[in-house]
Amino acid sequence: MQKQKSKALLVAGLSLLSGAWATSAQAQPKDQLFPQAPGIVSYTYRNQFAKDVPATLDMIKGNGITDIEFSSLFKQTPEHLRQLLDERGLHCSSYGVSYEDLTTKTDEVAAAAKALGAQYVRVAGIPHAKGNFTLDNAKQAVADFNKAGKILKDKYGLNFIYHNHGFEFVPYEAQVGTYFDYIIRNTDFKYVNFELDILWAFFPGQDPAKLLNTFGERFKALHLKDLKKGVTGNNSGGTDQNNDVVLGTGQINIPAVLKAARNAGVEHYYIEDESAASVEQVPQSIKYLNSLKK
Fold this sequence. Notes:
Elements: H1 2-26, E1 39-41, H2 46-51, H3 53-62, E2 67-70, H4 78-88, E3 91-97, H5 99-104, H6 106-116, E4 120-123, H7 135-156, E5 159-163, E6 171-173, E7 177-178, H8 179-186, E8 192-197, H9 199-202, H10 208-215, E9 219-224, E10 226-227, E11 244-245, H11 254-264, E12 268-271, H12 278-291
Helix pairs in contact: 1-3, 1-12, 4-6, 6-7, 7-8, 10-11
């Protein structure tokens, strides 16, 4: 009984803590740069979801968030998870799966995405030897993405998006571009589009705003995250998860990214905070987004 009371108080406290920011988001001035509530990536609260899915959904709702990108079902069936979302007025707009599941279980992935009510199916990695992403890897990804994307779109009415993870930004030919450029330019825009993770673009030395300006409408979704000051990036596709900091306190020019994303027509903005302090940091990131002016 005491444990249940403590959990209820925790959820209530978090809801009250973030309620002021949710209210301020509803009374948005016309000069606000980010005029809507952000979405959230379920990986942000992976530890909380692993312990208690309903309570974690309550916490998300308490933060004024209704749009979720799920990277896992957390031992729930898609149908039951959808029921839990519906009961709270939440929705899943994107469903993240592994590369292997996308290519070998396309129909099963589609069925789960449809049951969740998702619009997008997302993959966040491409098989390759660690530290050695090659043109052959990129070519294989192009072929696999075009094939799976066509099935998802034509058969199920779903949209496929690829989420960059940093290793794709190695130059593949002098003065031509990176492997990420290659993948974008060689995939069929009718069946393959992209989700820009701004940290995993910035970390290997790219400018997220410039990428949005260059490839425009190919980006349908965005992962909002910030990189701790003083951290030096590389092309590894990996950094300490606690290098994810509150938006606006790190190295990335968030306002420039948001302006470019608006111009590109990005549809979904998901906060992803992989740090151990995500419960405390997400409300602060929301407050920062609400404070930005045009």
